[in-house]
Design brief:
Order of helices and strands: EEEEEEEEEEEE
Largest sheet: 7 strands, mixed
Number of helices: 0
Structural class: mainly beta
CATH class: Mainly Beta
Strand content: 35-45%
CATH topology: Jelly Rolls
Radius of gyration: 16 Å
């Protein structure tokens, strides 16, 4: 079943890294959302993508922004809200997955009474340099 592999060279990514959400350090973004990165440049040594949990408080919203380079996925875990991408708005709820193309301006509003939890995946990995706030 196993394959014979040469040893992993120093400084390279190993075949398996595992992170647990409970161990991820959280930080508050400028819009008040709580973020916990599971994989990416800061956490696991992910080179091609990043994965984070975001929690938008009841009545809160993400800052309107875009990523010039990264493609992003939002997967809603709990709650519901209104996602606007390049001026088109859609209601989203638990189980929905939205694809956000590079350069697409987007904002997520939690109009509900409970926190809105979602997973955010960016490829290439999220960086602050690839996030442009629009002020909207």
């Amino acid at each position: 079943m196993g394959r014979d592999r040469p040893p992993v060279a120093p400084g390279t990514v190993q075949a398996m890294h595992v992170a647990n959400l409970d161990d991820a350090e959280s930080f508050r973004s400028t819009d008040g959302s709580m973020i916990r990165e599971l994989a990416g440049i800061v956490s696991l040594p992910s080179r091609q993508q990043s994965l984070a949990e975001a929690t938008v408080p009841a009545g809160g919203a993400t800052d309107e922004h875009y990523h010039p380079v990264a493609e992003e996925l939002y997967f809603v875990l709990e709650g519901s809200g209104r996602l606007t991408i390049d001026g088109e708005g859609r209601d989203v709820r638990a189980g929905d997955c939205a694809l956000i193309a590079p350069g697409a301006v987007h904002k997520l509003v939690n109009a509900g009474d409970e926190p809105l939890r979602l997973l955010c995946c960016c490829a290439p990995p999220w960086t602050a340099d690839d996030t442009v706030l629009t002020g909207g």
